[in-house]
Design brief:
Helix content: 40-55%
Number of helices: 14
Largest sheet: 7 strands, parallel
Order of helices and strands: HEHEHEHEHEHEHHEHHHHEHEEEH
Strand order of the largest sheet: 1-2-3-4-5-6-7
Distance between the termini: 38 Å
Shape: globular
């Protein structure tokens, strides 16, 4: 499952709903093109309901399987209850676009707020997701357990720095963890804790996280997780990584009755890979050598969304034109030249 993170300068907020539509649409299409049939959109940049509605509309328009995980409290007005209920009323069914609630957690808000949001999620039948880290004397998982707030419906993202004891707490509670190995290494979060999670009794899932930083395909995510853990302790098998990205990913999203494995009675979420490509021929090694170029055909709930290496029914030329226009407008308003001369300001300024 991949999460799409997007941010734009506040000076262009009046047009941000259009940006949100484009970014979410391209996020789902990129996922489908790369063989990802389900995308969790960890959406925590809404500044008003028009942005939320534009993002949901884009997910629907792309016709992939998506989970709109609305992040409470960062952009959504606080208290978030009314807005979560409003979006939930629009995503109340079991269609291809469903909903989850993105928690702030005990580090970013009060324990009373965490308790209230978990109660709201339970009332509305929503799973929850929480970005969590630890450093120094922080023990966020232990704090949650002390207040009776660990749930088997919560996925903890990253969890770098969490102690082995706290990982066991998550396992005991039936919670899940989502590891984003490329982002965690690139952004200095620390080594992915795949092996430590397994030792604690957790079966981790994988996520891509920040697509502009690390690309948007699950093949590279699996390969990084595999290589890092093999380098640390020689653990993991290719089969483990495939299960992290399919079976356990579906379970963590509450979709295991519908997808995650090719099983009678489930939706037909299937990808077909070329085995005759020179990069994998004559021995097909998907985890170690797989890449989006191998993805020949993709089905979502039985509907073909990619065939013969091309997305079906998508006007990519028109979408590219709209994206470039949006990029140019945002850069112009923000005063950022696009000729390669722009550099970030030094932190000292």
């Amino acid at each position: 499952m991949s999460g799409v993170v997007h941010d734009v300068p506040k000076c262009v907020v009046d047009k941000k709903e259009a940006v949100d539509f484009l970014l979410d649409a391209i996020g789902v299409l990129r996922a489908e093109h790369s063989g990802v049939t389900t995308m969790l959109d960890w959406y925590h940049v809404a500044q008003n309901r028009e942005h939320e509605d534009a993002a949901v509309a884009a997910l629907r328009d792309a016709q992939g399987r998506s989970i709109f995980c609305l992040g409470a409290g960062w952009g959504t007005p606080d208290p978030v209850d009314a807005e979560i209920r409003r979006v939930r009323s629009d995503l109340a069914g079991d269609g291809l676009v469903t909903m989850a609630l993105g928690l702030r957690g005990p580090v970013d808000t009060s324990m009373d707020t965490v308790a209230r949001e978990l109660k709201l999620a339970a009332e509305l039948g929503l799973r929850t997701s929480l970005h969590v880290d630890a450093g120094g004397t922080q023990r966020p998982v232990a704090d949650l357990r002390e207040h009776g707030l660990l749930r088997d419906t919560t996925t903890f993202v990253h969890a770098n720095g969490i102690s082995d004891e706290e990982l066991r707490m998550l396992a005991d509670a039936g919670s899940s963890v989502s590891i984003s190995p490329d982002v965690e290494l690139k952004m200095g979060f620390g080594s992915p804790m795949t092996g430590r999670a397994l030792a604690a009794g957790l079966r981790p899932t994988l996520s891509i996280d920040d697509v502009p930083s690390v690309g948007g395909d699950m093949f590279s995510t699996m390969r990084t997780a595999f290589a890092v853990q093999r380098g640390l302790d020689g653990g993991l098998r290719s089969r483990d990584l495939l299960e992290f990205a399919t079976v356990y990913a579906a379970q963590s999203c509450g979709l295991d009755a519908r997808t995650g494995s090719i099983t009678p009675g489930k939706d037909a979420d299937v990808i077909l890979l070329r085995a005759d490509d020179l990069t994998v021929f004559p021995i097909t090694t998907i985890v170690s050598a797989g890449h989006p170029g191998l993805v020949d055909t993709v089905l979502v709930a039985g509907r073909v969304v990619k065939r013969d290496g091309m997305l079906v029914g998508v006007d990519l030329a028109a979408l590219r034109t709209r994206l470039v226009e949006s990029r140019n407008r945002i850069a112009a308003v923000a005063g950022i030249p696009l000729d390669g001369t722009w550099r970030p300001r030094p932190e000292s300024e």
